[in-house]
User: Which sequence fits this backbone?
């Protein structure tokens, strides 16, 4: 039996009927066609599915869509403003913070939230903030540099 | 060549779509009416299937079809491309028959209207198993353990002895022989995107399109055509964005053929996306060797012989290259050293586990680990500095091509230069003093060195199972935009950028005018794919040579259009120009007559050559397509294709130095420094090289300290999720100090060697060496990977 949900995704109001067991990540990908949010493990360990729910980084593979009633969700497709890349996105591009790109959306979302909490993180803060996100390609060094780049550009302070 | 781009740290052109979340991996491709597949997989490592009851699953709403092994006998076996003498090859069907051989062995494919329904139906299938004795340990398998495949009662897939020189004499006449048993832990590649397949059969056109997350689209197409029984020219394989491979997608999997075949049966798009649990169980693993090293040497540290006798754990079946991987270990056992006699003895066995195959480095990390651990043991035995033992046995820079006792000819190298640079960066002499001081204070600091060589740019076709060349087509479109079609299949390595850099410099055009297309057999000429650090050295060279061919033609057209002798034209900055003196004599050419009704051509701008003394290559492209003023007997259009066959492999090398400190209280291992000086020949894009090196080193840290595929004695996979299998995280990485030396390869005109696997090959022994060195005060000479704090703590505390 489907349940109605009302929420905002990337600034757009949505009303949908979903199966109670539908995962948030499948709602975003299969119902809203926002396929930038990826599935990498189904056990909440890799972080590829990370999105912002009311400003907090959440692994959308371990949340049901029905739990999203009334919330505001930001996915990778919605993190840029008016076509301008988010400083974290810019940092990933500038610093070669991605290779295959599969972990990248979740990594960018997690990094953006990290900078919202802490505008001038140390290297240790960044590593700690990204503990929940796995990358198999880059060896993380360039990702850390990308976040430092975004911090230097004032990401987080604008919010 | 005017290097505006090559050699520069150019930002990747593929990144915008990836950082915006707009790229398309297989699961992001949506086709109407797609049906979804979920697999029933064996929960036993070895069992007879007495019966399978699918009635409840089939009756479940939304389930469309269920296929068992007996239903798919027409689908050809999963191929193995290795052709070793007397190799035993089990019949590897896409679904299990009356027996299962490993946990995760696919038994049934359930097709349903959505993935939740398909997954639910998996639980409704009742499989009645009769469990059989299991063999998990490779040595037990070799020594008369339970028989896996009845046709091969000794469980041995092959035995092979290789190498040159008199090994017996070397062993018997040496001043010293040191022996060490050594384990290469079984690893899971863990591409962040699991495997995935989408297939669409169009019954009218009789065409099948397969989207698959693979590293080898063309080879996959050939194999799928055979397996599915569809003409190869009616089959198109597309690799959309691929979320990492590391060798795990350098394969042909049963699921790929089965999904295609089901689409043909049902006439609908069929999709299967692997779960992470399936990925751990049923995507190939890497490494998995246990062996004995014997190294013979003189009192002064000169190496005289190396023997490595290894049991290779192949798993239950051969995947594409399973048996070949240990042979690559044999090839590289000379490392960076002069060793006059080398012998490798392989006993490769079946076990009730998933197949091992190519994982980043594929047999070469094992070789480097063997050789570098051996050199550390020599140093310990002689109480020499590990760096000096290495230095003593290097071939000199003037001794290349250097022939090894494993039958290879290393192309070029200056091993001492890389070692010098790394020692300098590490402050090596001071570091050893600090270590002594720290030890006196009770601190445990260790320094590990690896001076590795790897074999890359795979490879000459004679040495490869399915051709080792690579292809490229370079085309300048009428509007001047450049299209590069490469047979390589990058999946994170960044060749859309680096190949565009090569093309932009060679053609003198803007980088943004170039598009590099790959991974679509319907568009790209046949190619081999991306693996073995080959894409730039082989595929990049194909791009380079294709451009030279294209420019030969453009040059002739330019001379004709400018009405001058070709020898008086030069190409610079994207323009063909006459020499200054000749410029004045250039004359106008007659207006071309465009017949009415030839709209497409007429709609294009006309090339204006009148009064010109130079033409851009893009002007020439337009003229070549309009074909109104071409030299006699010139084909219209401006494109060239080249298939580059390398004459040899390339041999990148370098020195890695790891510095660690061990916490006495907890056994925790912390990196104080990590220095890597890599030589991958000429560099197209240093940013990408750095990314490859760092990523590889961190995968090595995984192997050395965290990662291990564990099966229990019943063959149950203990490390079945990312909760149990420890992939390194951001906090696990060392402070990096990276540098390079640059020794061009003579094997290709770009001088490049390859860098994709350097990190996983060079780093592991440096890390293990550092940990062992830190524990040397406890008499430790070797530890098996992964070295966890628990093991370290036990040593410190005398347990």
Assistant:
């Amino acid at each position: 039996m489907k349940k109605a949900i009302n929420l905002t995704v990337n600034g757009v109001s949505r009303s949908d009927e979903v199966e109670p067991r539908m995962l948030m990540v499948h709602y975003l990908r299969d119902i809203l066609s926002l396929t930038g949010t990826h599935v990498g493990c189904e056990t909440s360990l890799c972080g590829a599915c990370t999105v912002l729910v009311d400003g907090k980084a959440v692994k959308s593979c371990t949340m049901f869509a029905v739990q999203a009633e009334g919330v505001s969700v930001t996915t990778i497709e919605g993190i840029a403003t008016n076509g301008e890349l988010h400083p974290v996105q810019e940092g990933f591009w500038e610093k070669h913070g991605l290779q295959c790109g599969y972990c990248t959306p979740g990594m960018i979302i997690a990094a953006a939230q990290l900078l919202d909490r802490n505008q001038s993180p140390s290297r240790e803060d960044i590593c700690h903030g990204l503990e929940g996100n796995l990358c198999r390609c880059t060896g993380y060094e360039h990702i850390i540099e990308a976040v430092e780049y975004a911090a230097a550009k004032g990401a987080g302070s604008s919010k | 060549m005017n290097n505006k781009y090559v050699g520069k740290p150019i930002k990747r052109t593929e990144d915008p779509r990836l950082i915006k979340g707009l790229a398309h991996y297989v699961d992001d491709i949506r086709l109407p009416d797609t049906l979804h597949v979920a697999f029933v997989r064996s929960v036993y490592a070895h069992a007879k299937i007495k019966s399978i009851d699918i009635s409840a699953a089939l009756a479940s709403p939304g389930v469309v079809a269920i296929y068992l092994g007996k239903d798919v006998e027409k689908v050809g076996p999963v191929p193995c491309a290795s052709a070793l003498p007397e190799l035993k090859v089990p019949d590897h069907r896409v679904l299990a028959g009356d027996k299962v051989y490993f946990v995760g062995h696919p038994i049934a494919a359930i097709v349903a209207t959505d993935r939740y329904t398909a997954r639910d139906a998996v639980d409704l299938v009742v499989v009645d198993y009769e469990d059989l004795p299991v063999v998990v340990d490779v040595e037990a398998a070799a020594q008369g353990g339970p028989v896996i495949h009845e046709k091969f009662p000794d469980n041995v897939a092959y035995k092979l002895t290789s190498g040159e020189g008199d090994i017996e004499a070397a062993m018997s006449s040496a001043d010293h022989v040191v022996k060490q048993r050594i384990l290469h832990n079984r690893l899971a590649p863990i591409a962040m995107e699991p495997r995935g397949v989408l297939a669409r059969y169009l019954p009218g056109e009789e065409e099948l399109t397969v989207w698959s997350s693979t590293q080898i689209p063309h080879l996959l197409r050939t194999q799928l055509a055979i397996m599915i029984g569809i003409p190869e020219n009616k089959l198109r394989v597309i690799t959309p964005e691929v979320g990492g491979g590391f060798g795990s997608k350098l394969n042909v999997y049963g699921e790929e053929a089965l999904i295609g075949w089901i689409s043909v049966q049902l006439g609908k798009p069929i999709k299967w996306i692997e779960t992470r649990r399936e990925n751990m169980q049923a995507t190939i693993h890497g490494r998995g060797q246990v062996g004995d090293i014997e190294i013979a040497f003189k009192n002064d540290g000169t190496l005289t012989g190396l023997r490595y006798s290894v049991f290779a754990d192949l798993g239950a079946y051969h995947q594409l290259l399973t048996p070949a991987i240990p042979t690559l270990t044999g090839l590289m056992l000379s490392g960076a050293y002069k060793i006059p006699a080398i012998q490798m003895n392989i006993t490769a066995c079946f076990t009730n586990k998933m197949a091992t195959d190519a994982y980043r480095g594929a047999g070469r990390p094992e070789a480097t680990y063997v050789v570098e651990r051996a050199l550390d043991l020599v140093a310990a035995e002689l109480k020499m500095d590990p760096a000096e033992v290495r230095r003593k046995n290097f071939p000199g820079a003037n001794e290349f091509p250097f022939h090894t006792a494993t039958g290879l000819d290393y192309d070029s190298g200056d091993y001492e230069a890389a070692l010098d640079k790394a020692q300098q960066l590490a402050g090596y002499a001071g570091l050893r003093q600090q270590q002594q001081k720290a030890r006196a204070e009770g601190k445990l600091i260790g320094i590990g060195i690896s001076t590795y060589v790897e074999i890359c740019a795979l490879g000459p076709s004679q040495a490869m199972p399915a051709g080792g060349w690579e292809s490229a087509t370079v085309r300048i479109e009428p509007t001047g935009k450049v299209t590069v079609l490469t047979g390589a299949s990058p999946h994170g390595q960044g060749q859309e950028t680096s190949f565009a850099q090569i093309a932009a410099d060679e053609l003198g055009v803007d980088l943004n005018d170039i598009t590099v297309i790959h991974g679509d057999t319907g568009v790209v000429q046949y190619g081999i794919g991306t693996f073995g650090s080959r894409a730039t050295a082989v595929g990049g060279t194909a791009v380079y040579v294709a451009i030279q061919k294209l420019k030969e033609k453009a040059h002739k057209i330019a001379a004709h259009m400018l009405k001058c002798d070709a020898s008086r034209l030069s190409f610079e900055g994207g323009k063909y120009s006459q020499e200054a003196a000749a410029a004045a004599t250039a004359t106008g050419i007659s207006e071309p007559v465009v017949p009415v009704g030839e709209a497409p051509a007429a709609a294009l701008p006309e090339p204006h050559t009148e009064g010109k003394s130079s033409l851009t290559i893009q002007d020439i492209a337009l003229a070549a397509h309009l074909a109104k003023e071409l030299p006699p007997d010139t084909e219209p259009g401006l494109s060239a294709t080249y298939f580059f066959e390398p004459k040899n492999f390339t041999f990148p090398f370098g020195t890695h130095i790891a510095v660690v400190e061990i916490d006495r209280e907890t056994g925790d291992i912390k990196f104080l420094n990590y220095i890597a000086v890599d030589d991958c020949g000429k560099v197209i894009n240093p940013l990408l090289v750095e990314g490859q090196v760092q990523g590889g080193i961190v995968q090595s840290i995984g192997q050395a300290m965290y990662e291990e595929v564990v099966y229990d004695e019943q063959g149950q996979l203990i490390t079945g999720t990312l909760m149990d299998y420890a992939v390194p995280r951001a906090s696990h990485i060392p402070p990096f100090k990276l540098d390079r030396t640059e020794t061009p390869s003579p094997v290709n005109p770009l001088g490049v060697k390859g860098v994709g696997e350097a990190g996983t090959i060079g780093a592991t022994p440096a890390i293990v060496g550092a940990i062992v060195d830190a524990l040397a005060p406890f008499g430790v000479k070797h530890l098996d990977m992964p070295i966890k704090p628990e093991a370290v703590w036990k040593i410190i505390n005398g347990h």
User: Anything to note?
Assistant: Residues 535-562 of chain B form the longest helix (28 residues). Chain B is about 30% helix and 20% strand.
